[in-house]
Amino acid sequence: MEFDPALREEVKAAIDGKTKPVGSLGRIEELAEQLCLLQGTTRPNADSCGLTIFAADHGLADAGVSAFPKAVTQQMVLNFMGGGAAANAFAGAFGVTVRVVDAGVENPVDHPNLLVHRLGPGTANSAEEPAMSPGAVADALDTGREFGASWGFPVVAFGDMGIGNTATCALLIHKITGQRLAPLVGPGTGLDAEGVARKLTILRKAASRTGKLQPMQALSEYGGFEIVMMAGAMIGAATERRLVLVDGFIASTAALIALTLEPELRPAFVFCHASAEPGNKALAQHLHAEPLLDLNLRLGEGTGALLAWPLVQAAAAMMNRMASFEDAGVSGAH
Ligand SMILES: Cc1cc2ncn([C@H]3O[C@H](COP(=O)(O)O)[C@@H](O)[C@H]3O)c2cc1C
Ligand SMILES: O=C(O)c1cccnc1
Q1: What is the ipTM of this complex?
Q2: Residues 108 and 214 occupy one common structural domain
Q3: Fewer CB within 10 Å of terminal CB in the chain, N or C?
Q4: Residue nearest (by alpha carbon) to ligand 1 atom 3
């Protein structure tokens, strides 16, 4: 993603010309600059935001890597459709439109508003065998791209639902970045120390099934449908120059995949919050991400991205509503 140096200068001058000491709005100024460059204007549009939640099951969940049973994925999809999840509550509070995609929940959900692109009844158990076929990886990326490119919001967020997906993400990060596995494995939905130790044993077995992998091979070996589809959606949205609000550990793993495949799209990505899932720290460092918020969240669904949406609105308001020194007749610095 290339930016015209003249635009860069113009944006910087517009931000510094607002009636405030230079740099005094801190990260909001950085966000404003990012949004302006992405949209090619000093008058950016952050009028609306859409959240897409991708849901799917993980065969690995049957091996005992989560504090909750697999059935919760489907039950939470129904909860999203009924408007009762945390993501719905936050989206409702902030005027964000929500849509939900079944990318491969074990048991299909019948609901008129659910978007369905099922890649199977959940992935296979990656401790024993490849999670998904290379064809399913390609399908998930293509479908995700289409979802991301075609939804006309200037700002987009992505959420996940898939019991066992913190385990899948630990394996993906380990295989894609080469970081050690143990620090990437955490409590997820709330495993105790013994549960985390059991999760690590299962993930070591899964990791030892394969050697060094290319990123696309890692996706096929470890899945999951919703993570790969989310990565595709991030690529599709960023390519259309939509601002991509990245949620916590799961969405950051999808961002890792997206940016491994398309590194030039990095200027479209905003890392919204520092998930309390321990592996997120190393992942954020790898991505050179400095998350905007640190609220001890560890939920997913896009909740941390939704909380950052008002900050994006503030950045746009700074550009569109604030007077310049010249407009307001305010004296500049000595
Ligand atoms: C009721 C409930 C609602 C959730 N919403 C998101 N997650 C989150 O928890 C799961 C990942 O954690 P693990 O890898 O430990 O299974 C994902 O589904 C994620 O979206 C939830 C989990 C539960 C139980
Ligand atoms: O940060 C996340 O995305 C997360 C953390 C724990 C469980 N589910 C999701």
Answers
A1: 0.99
A2: yes
A3: C
A4: 76
